[in-house]
Amino acid sequence: MKIICLQDATASTSKYRRMKTVGRAITNYEANLTNTAYLSRGLLSIKERKLFGQTPAKLKISQNPDFQEEASYQIQFIVTKQWTLYSITPLHKFSYGKLWEYSKQLSQVITAHKEKRFILDGETDLMFQAKFSSFSVLKTKGKKQTAVLIEIMQKPLMVDDDDDDDEEESKVVWMGCLCYACTSDFVETLPEDFTCLPLFLVHGAQGFSNIVEAWLQQTFDCYFSPLHINPIHLAWMAAIWSGCNMDHRVHATELTFSVPCLPYPLDISYAIHSEDAKDLWDSIHSIQGEVKQEEVELFMKALYKHFHRHFMIHLSSTQLVKVSTSVASLHSLGKVKIHQAQYLMGVLSLLTELALSKIM
């Protein structure tokens, strides 16, 4: 086993350190978890061809669709980018037929904020252009909600007079995506005047996010809140993502734990070869297409026991704050990066369920 001992995480501070281990296959998982406070009790399962099952006390996730080639361009907007997650209450009086009108209104608001000037009605030559568009690749089968992509483009400060193609000169500086990527029936209970797109993914500067959030709240009488991920769901993802089948694995399975009650911040980063993590999960996982809570507990317990054997540290006394696998990376603060397009809807489905749980 290769071990990288305690080392400085950044050159600017000696108080913030990281510990990393790369372990081999683990098969001994007889002992109980030292502390299962972060894993709720109960038996939970998933149906065939589901990436995730019910998270503790949550609903099930939709199937992974087979994406068509024409959707590959849209998928690239989501995959490989890091997104910040928010939950958003249903939008009042939102209309898919008014996306052009929304684009115009938001363009004026953004330009007014950034240039600190009054925008005349009908003014079109704006420094910032917002664009609303339907994002059909993220539509869940059987649901009427289609995801909406919001892009903010900025014109260059210096434009070549000989080049009339302003579209090519503009640069996308911010993106947001409103989506409903799960099979929950919550949307069926809403009045017709409301559109439910509870998961909001944001990629870009916080300043633009604040402007867009304020405009959406004022226009559609909705409310935003950051979508944080608790250790329960992170543990489930660590286990199930590690067991996903794929042609190639480009990332190790890495779990990051935060150590509490210290006078300085300390993270422990625990990396396992992805093949070894899958072998461990396969040795625990019994029924194809079904995942049980006790299996997730056994998976985490085996990793804890292996780490304790080498470092005499009880990870069960720390808090799991980040999971990174070949499928996706997810931080407790609501930062996600999806690595595999084939599992795009599976990841977004769980995140949608979590977003719904905040507004129901």
UniProtKB/TrEMBL annotation:
Record bears the keyword Iron-sulfur: no
Protein name, as recorded: Centromere protein L
Entry GO CC: inner kinetochore; nucleus
Compartments where found: Chromosome, Centromere; Nucleus
Pfam families: CENP-L
Family, similarity comment: Belongs to the CENP-L/IML3 family.
Keywords: Centromere, Chromosome, Nucleus
Domain of life: Eukaryota
